[in-house]
Amino acid sequence: MAEVDTTPAGVFANGARLVGDIILPGVSQAVNGDIKSGAAHAAVAVGAATLLGAGLLVPVVWAAAGLNSYSRSVTGRNVVEHFDWRKAAE
Questions:
Q1: pLDDT tens, position by position, 53-62
Q2: Residue 1, domain member (yes or no)
Q3: Res. 88 pLDDT band, cuts 50 70 90
Q4: Does residue 2 lie within any of the structural domains?
Q5: What is the pTM of this model?
Q6: Of 41, 5, 4, which Cα lies nearest the Cα of 23?
Q7: CA distances from 7 to 19, 23, 31, 68 (A)
């Protein structure tokens, strides 16, 4: 697991990553140099917006893709891995 930077500069950088991922999911992955993963997160969000139109699920999918990208960028784990209770006990 990656160490989370809690210095003031690290907190500011993480905040900037979060804002970037809210605007377009995958930005924080791209900033970290993982262009392929960043593009995949962006493709999921844009694809959902295109396929689902203006429905209620678009913001949900957009937010899920953004939060997953942010989580992978900061901690190195997917959002789902944070809720795996078996790994937390180890």
A1: 777 888 999 9
A2: no
A3: low
A4: no
A5: 0.81
A6: 41
A7: 18, 24, 19, 23
